[in-house]
Each structure stands twice: as C-alpha cells, then as structure tokens.
TrEMBL record:
Keywords, sorted A to Z: Acyltransferase, Lipoyl, Pyruvate, Transferase
Cofactor(s) annotated in UniProt: (R)-lipoate
Name recorded for this polypeptide: Dihydrolipoamide acetyltransferase component of pyruvate dehydrogenase complex
Region (Disordered): 76-182, 217-243
Enzyme Commission number(s) from the entry: 2.3.1.-
Entry keyword Nucleotide-binding: no
The organism's taxonomic lineage, starting at the top: Bacteria, Bacillati, Actinomycetota, Actinomycetes, Micrococcales
InterPro entries associated with the record: 2-oxoA_DH_lipoyl-BS (IPR003016), 2-oxoacid_DH_actylTfrase (IPR001078), 2-oxoacid_DH_E2_comp (IPR050743), Biotin_lipoyl (IPR000089), CAT-like_dom_sf (IPR023213), E3-bd_dom_sf (IPR036625), PSBD (IPR004167), Single_hybrid_motif (IPR011053)
Annotated Lipoyl-binding domain residues: 1-76
Transmembrane segments: none
Compositional bias annotation for Polar residues: 161-171
Length: 484
C-alpha cells in the first residue's frame, strides 16, 4: 500500500483544516483526481492524488487539522498488487518521504499512452503534481478498470459499497469538474450531489448557477425515499453537543462553540503578533474629497474608465511612499541586532473581505502602475480572493497596506498593522459634512484618513508628512496626478 502525505502547501504553511473528502474508501481514483478539499491560512484548495489505484484509508475526519508531512490517504496501486509482500506492512513503513512524493507524478510509463493520457492536468502543488504537455516529463501508466486483486476494502461495508459502484459505473470514478472550492461548499450546504449536475461552463465545468439551479429543483420521481441531509463536520457536531451547557462565569446557556481553525486562526495569530511586537502610533486627518468624486464623475460621463476611490488612494499612497520610504520598510531581528530594511520598490497590499475571512492580496511593484493599472489589478485580485482561487504568492510579500473600511459604513478606525510591515492606511466612508470653503460654510464630501505606523521605524514627522501628502492629493487630485 502507498501512503500519500499531506504535501507542502507553500509559504511556510505547516497545517491545514480538512473541509471535505472528495473520495471514499474503496473508490477507484486516477492520477490528478481531487481527493480532498483543505483550508490553509491563505485559502481553500483541492489536493489532487499523484497515484492511481483504490482508496484504502482516509486519514482524518472533516474538521480535523492535518499537519504537512503526515498521512493524508492510503492507496492500493497496481504495483502493490504485484508485490503483496510489500503491502502487508503496517502502512506507516510505506509512508513516502517528501522527495518520493515529488517523484510520484513522474514515474515512467510501461507503454506509450495516448495524447489524452499523457497530457497533464496542471494540478500542481509544492513538491508534486503534473503540468501541461511537457515532452521531457513522464507519467505513471493509467490503468483502465481496476484489477480485482487490487481492491481490498477493509470491511464488509466497503466491499458492498465497491460492488455497488462497479455495477453502476463501468470505469473508474471520475470527480465532478469543479474549479472553485466555493462551489463545492455551496453544494454541501444545499445538500446537492455534484456528481448529479451537468455543468454549464466550459467543457462541462460546474458553476455556481448550476448548484443554485439544482438546489431549487423539486424532488425527483422517487421522492418517497428519505432525503439525505448535508454532512455535518466535526466542528458542527461539537457545537451541537455544547448547546444547552451553562457557562459557569456568566451563568448563560452556551448556544454554540466554534473552533478557531484555518484562516480565522491565521488572522488571530497575525493580529496578536502585531499588537504584541509593534509599538504603533496613530494619526488621522479629515479630507474634503468633493473634487475627487467630481473628477470620477467626469471620466464616467465622457465614457472613459474611472478608477475606483481605492485605486486612486493607492496611487497617491505609492507616490507618498516614494517620498517617505521608511513607512514601507520593516524591522528585522538579526544576530547583529535589530535592523531597518528598506526596499527598492513597493508591494502594496489591500484588505479584502471574503466568505472565509479578511485577506490581504498584494499588488507587486505597485510603483510601476498608473491609477487605471492599479484599478485593474485590485479588481482581479479581489475577485480571485472571493472565488477562493487566489494563490499564496498573491497574498504575501507586502510592504504597506491600505484598508477601505468605509465600505462597511465606518467613519474611522484604528487599523492594526499587518505584521511585519511598518504601517497601514485606512479610509472611512465618504459623507456630507459642513466644511469651510473660502471662508464660507458649505456642504462637502468628506472622509477621514487614518495612519497607524511602527514608531520604531519612523517618528511623527515622517508619518504626519506622508499623511498630509496623501490628503492633499485626495483633496486636489487633478494637480496631484499632473505631477505623478
């Protein structure tokens, strides 16, 4: 038997939360078939199998936290069937090392495969996987129907399940074509079986609209059969068990307990580290942005692309950081003592709210982009984050962060610095306020800019100078953009 360990998921991630199994024990899997959906501190991803064979053991239950390098799934392959002595070990002895996993998807085939068989799926994680058509890489031979002696279910129930599948499906089980983890999550919540849906996307890809349509359809003709409830993960079961218990401190009944895992755990750790390690200070300034909104309206009326307020703010922030680079630096601890590290460029992060929590996508080399270029990149990264398809690289390496909490109706806030950066700038909602213009009172569009900065890196002079520069640009964008 071959044990496949949870692979290196990149960016130093050491664990992941198991959201769901996409295969069952006794089921036949092929190379690159998604076998599990896991959530890391960065995003939700599907883990593909580097082996073809029969699933023998699933190591873990939904809701469990799995560590990188520990067993994920045990598969009985054709090679195992040819060498029964090797498969009689306790399983742990067959666990593959990181390098062995790396070679798993590139074993030499015994015979020449067809173009369809040899073409990779592109499901690549750190350390293993296959890529699209590369003549220099070789693939493990795919078998057709599994050999009888390779299916070794662990109990009678597994044998019955395998027998039932063999009568209904002539070939190996194929995973439904789904690219977004959010679609799978939506299907689980609505109790929709993805195998029963015909995708309307390219090449039968299952989209959100397909899941929604399936969820709205009335029960099929044998509706007299009991309805299958969506699977409840371990965290939900623990929460249900806690219901009815009385908290000794407050005397109130406990309604629910929610485990801090995955992305929420990463956010909690990052924010706690920031508060614990960074001596931050905060400055803020009210800004009349009436002229900024008028400029955007004129661009729209002329049929031109109008960058968002966040994109324009980002462009002014980049210009300000080029004048006050210490705010895009960071503190590093070395054997020779603490050092302030300055960078030749700006990687600008921005806060984006998703269904799974707050993430910070990063626009790399932001100083090279115009306001329109920033607008395009911000939109792309935000959509990828909300769809759960953003990569770990696109959410790391930032040197400064902007946060538009005004979209949630907040006038102002004291943002927490995204460790290990040195500063973060937030913008509140834009509202009508009385404002003195030319010595007379007028109603203007006003917002509040708030800057939190690491006092070890710079002092109030630099922080105040940077904030005033950005505020001036927001107040008179035409003149500012002429100089940028």
């Amino acid at each position: 038997m071959t044990i496949f360990n949870l692979p290196d998921l990149g960016e130093g991630l050491t664990e992941a939360t198991l959201l769901s199994w996409l295969v069952a024990e006794g089921e036949t899997v092929h190379v690159d078939q998604p076998i599990a959906e896991v959530e890391t501190a960065k995003s939700s991803i599907e883990v593909p199998s580097p082996y073809a064979g029969t699933v023998h053991t699933l190591h873990g239950s939904t809701g469990d936290t799995l560590e990188v390098g520990n067993p994920l799934i045990t598969v009985t392959t054709e090679d195992d069937a040819d060498s029964p002595a090797d498969s009689s070990t306790d399983g742990r002895a067959g666990a593959l090392s990181y390098r062995e996993e790396e070679r798993a998807g590139t074993a030499a085939p015994e015979s020449q495969d067809t173009d369809e068989e040899t073409e990779g799926s592109g499901n690549v994680l750190i350390g293993y996987g296959t890529s699209q058509a590369s003549s220099a890489r070789r693939r493990r031979k795919r078998s057709g129907a599994p050999r009888a002696d390779t299916q070794r279910p662990t109990d009678a129930a597994a044998q019955g399940s395998a027998a039932q599948r063999s009568t209904t499906s002539p070939g190996p089980a194929q995973a439904p074509r789904v690219s977004s983890p959010l679609v799978r999550r939506m299907a689980r919540r609505q109790g929709v079986e993805l195998h029963s849906i015909s995708g309307s996307g390219p090449e039968g890809l299952i989209m959100r609209r397909d899941v929604l349509a399936a969820g709205e359809q009335p029960a099929a003709a044998g509706a007299g059969a009991p309805q299958r409830e969506p699977a409840r993960d371990a965290a939900q079961q623990d929460a249900a068990a806690a219901a009815g218990a009385v908290d000794s401190r407050t005397g109130l009944a406990v309604r629910e307990r929610v485990a801090v895992t995955g992305m929420r755990k990463a956010i909690a750790a990052k924010m706690s580290q920031s508060r614990r390690e960074i001596p931050e200070a905060t400055v803020w300034q009210d800004v009349d942005v009436t002229a900024l909104l008028d400029m955007r309206a004129q661009l729209k009326d002329s049929g031109q692309e109008a960058p968002s307020v966040l994109a324009l703010l980002s462009r002014f922030v980049v210009a300000g950081l080029q004048r006050y680079p210490e705010l895009a630096a960071r503190i590093e601890h070395t054997d020779a003592g603490d050092q302030i590290v300055h960078f030749a460029g700006i990687n600008l992060g921005f806060a984006a709210q998703t269904e799974t929590g707050l993430v910070v996508p990063v626009v790399r080399e932001a100083q090279r982009l115009s306001a329109r270029g920033l607008n395009t990149e911000i939109r792309r990264l935000a959509e990828s984050a909300r769809d759960g398809q953003i990569s770990s690289k696109e959410m790391s390496g930032g040197t400064f962060t902007v946060n538009n909490y005004g979209v949630f109706g907040s006038d102002g806030a004291t943002p927490i610095i995204n460790h290990p950066e040195a500063a973060i700038l937030g913008i509140g909602r834009i509202i009508d306020r009385p404002w003195a213009v030319g010595g007379e009172l007028a109603v203007r569009k006003v917002t509040t800019l708030t800057l939190a900065f690491d006092h070890r890196v710079c002092d109030g002079g630099a922080a105040g100078g940077f904030l005033n520069f950005v505020a001036t640009c927001m107040g008179d964008p035409t003149a500012a953009l002429a100089d940028l």
